[in-house]
Each structure stands twice: as C-alpha cells, then as structure tokens.
Design a protein that fits this description.
This protein has 388 residues and is an alpha+beta fold. The protein has eleven helices and eight strands.
C-alpha cells in the first residue's frame, strides 16, 4: 500500500469513527448558501479535528501541520467530502492566510498567528473587495496610515464572507496616499473585535447572510501586522488568491458530483428524464464535471511549484459556469414544483438554494469577465485590454 493509500485509509477510518455521536447530525451541514447552519456545532467539530491533528494537514510540521504531500492533501479533501462531513469554518485561515504567512510572513507573525489557526481558536475573513474595487481589485480605496506603533485603517470592504463570525481580517489597503492601481498597497492583518470596526450582514437571495459589509473608521492594528514590505501588498494578495485555487477544489468536486447524482435521481423519479433535452443537458453536465476534475489535476502542477499560475483561471471559470448551469438544470428538472417555497416565510428547498446561490459562483473569487482577461493576457499572450 502506498503512502497516499495509507493516508487516505487512516483519515477515512478516523472520519468513520469520529463523525458519530454528537457530531453525527452535522453530516451535510453548512456550505455555500448554508453557512448559517449549525455554526457553533461545526466549530466544535473542527476544534475536535484540531485536537486529533487533522487540521492544516498540508502545512509543514514545524508550523503545526502534518507535512502531507500534495497527493495526500487531495486524498484528505476527497475523503472529507465523501464522508459528507460538515463544511469547514476555519478554511479561510487554513487555506488562504496560513500558506501566505508561511511564504511571506516574519517568524514573529508565524509564531503569533499560525497556532490559533491550527487550533481553530481564531477565525479569519478576507478584506479585498470594495464597492468600486470588486473584480478591479487594484482600484482599492481603503487606506491605512502608519501612526506611531500602529496602522490606522479607514475605508469599506464588501462581500466579506463570514466577517460576522471572524476574529481577524487580512486587508488590502492603500498605504501610500499618492499611489495608484497596484502600487502603494499593503497587506495588513486587522483585528475585527475592536473599536472602529462595524460589520453589517448582507441579506442574500437565499435569505441568509454569508456576505457582509465591513466599515473601518480609524481601526487600529499593530505596526508589525503588515505581511511583506509596506507598499508591496499586491504581490502578497495575488499569492493568496493563488492558494485559494489549491487542492481543496478536489473536495469541492465531490460535492458537485453528489449534487449532479441527486439531480439525475430526481429526473428519474418525476419523469423529467424522459425529456430528450433534459437528458442531453444531464449528459453535458456529466461530461463537464469530468472535465473539471481533469483540469484541476492538471492545475495541481502549479500548486506543486508553490502556487497555481494564471492558468488556474481556466479551472475557476469552468467550474463556476458549470455549477451555475447545474442550478438552472435542477430547477428545470423540478418543473413547476420548483416555484413553490418549502414553507413560510421563505423556506427554500435544496434545489432552490442551489439555483439562487450558484448565481454568485461566477462573481466571487474573481468574476468570469476578469478570469477571461487573465487567460487572454497572461496565458495566451494576447494584447492587454485598453484601460483608462
């Protein structure tokens, strides 16, 4: 048995024996559009994982991880999804900030921030997007000024996932007043449970509030909490986005496959599968899912090199569009029943929630339009789009 197979078998056995008792009811809870579900219970589960050494498995051992190989990390995420284990609450710290600090942080920053991520004692969110700087992130206007031993942050972030449940936020802010675009930005670690921070949940189409507005009005963070050199935050921020395209996407695809299989089962039960157009769309969805997996495996070469390159945008645009179309297919398979709420006042079915929330897939983590520009300019080498 190979090391990967042994690792996979060990984690599968652990999940089987631990996702029981008080944690058994958490199977399938949480996830996109359902992050409000059993948050406290999922946090307790993840802290249990930490106590057993099953968080941050891909991190080097000296930082609290298991030093798992790339193949072992893939096995971890696949087995977690196959077990229908609850959606992770600490994934932004574990998958985005942690690898960023390991790559760019100071020894002091790693010592301060990595252990609480491993133990799931501090939760993180990502402070990138603003009302006028969403896909065009270089248009950031949130500013930070160095005053004595602190950075003082003023501005607004929006679409900040799980900010209302988070303790810290990694914020891209403009620290050089005369700078424009990619220049003069810094990557700051900002505490949220302090004066000067106002978090306002945004009610979404699903009726839930995974996203938030975050207002900084003179919020302070220690001067040492800048990752990389001041003014070089763009490089650090782009590396974080690269880590976001990492191995966890393989686990995501297990969830996609489960959703597709459920759509097929529904089509068979209600007779929609007899419609040749529906059958054709189901076949295309199956082919698309296989393509997503093959492309993700190809992109792992970039992960092995340190972080995915711009080619990872191909994977993002493909899975986001595929998942949005799966939501549309699910509603068409439901037929007229898909127009009826499950209950008062706004109780949605799983299919309705899939349809509504998957509309955002092609926007968050880089909109389809921006991904196409990246592919055109950085992968295909086409002339850059004219910008004002």
């Amino acid at each position: 048995m190979s090391n990967v197979e042994e690792f996979r078998a060990e984690f599968r056995s652990w999940l089987r024996s631990h996702l029981t008792g008080e944690f058994a009811a958490l199977r399938g809870r949480g996830g996109p559009g359902r992050e409000h579900e059993a948050h406290a219970e999922r946090l307790a589960w993840e802290r249990h994982m930490a106590a057993e050494g099953w968080t941050c498995v891909g991190w080097p051992k000296e930082y609290g991880g298991r030093g798992a190989t790339l193949e072992q990390q893939v096995a971890f995420h696949e087995e977690y999804a196959l077990a229908d284990a609850p959606a992770r609450v600490g994934h932004i710290g574990e998958q985005l900030l942690g690898p960023t600090l390991i790559a760019f942080g100071t020894p002091e920053q790693r010592e301060r921030f990595l252990p609480p991520i491993v133990a799931v004692e501090e939760l993180w969110c990502q402070g990138y997007s603003e009302p006028d700087a969403g896909s065009d992130l270089a248009n950031v206007r949130t500013r930070a000024e160095r005053i004595d031993d602190a950075w003082v942050v003023t501005g607004q972030k929006i679409w900040t996932s799980q900010a209302h449940e988070s303790d810290w936020c990694f914020v891209v802010a403009r620290t050089e007043p005369s700078s424009t675009r990619h220049q003069g930005l810094s990557y700051l670690l900002v505490p949220l449970r302090r004066p000067g921070v106002d978090i306002r949940p945004i009610v979404q189409l699903t009726g839930t509030s995974e996203f938030n507005e975050v207002f900084f009005d003179g919020a302070r963070t220690d001067a040492a909490n800048v990752v990389g050199a001041p003014g070089e935050g763009w490089k650090v921020a782009m590396a974080t986005l690269g880590f976001e395209r990492g191995v966890s996407t393989l686990g995501q695809q297990v969830g996609f496959r489960r959703e597709l299989e459920a759509v097929i089962a529904l089509a068979r039960r209600n007779g929609a599968a007899t419609d040749p157009l529906i059958r054709d769309r189901i076949a295309r969805a199956w082919i698309g899912l296989e393509t997503i997996r093959f492309n993700a495996l190809r992109m792992l070469g970039g992960v092995a090199a340190g972080a995915p390159g711009p080619e990872a945008s191909i994977g993002k645009i493909f899975w986001a569009t595929w998942h949005r179309e799966l939501g549309e297919l699910a509603m068409d398979v439901c037929g007229a029943d898909g127009m009826l709420a499950a209950g008062e006042p706004y109780d949605l079915t799983d299919w309705q929630r899939l349809y509504l929330f998957s509309r955002s897939d092609t926007i968050y983590a880089g909109s389809n339009e921006i991904q196409r520009n990246i592919i055109a300019e950085r992968v295909l080498g086409l002339p850059k789009e004219v910008r004002p």
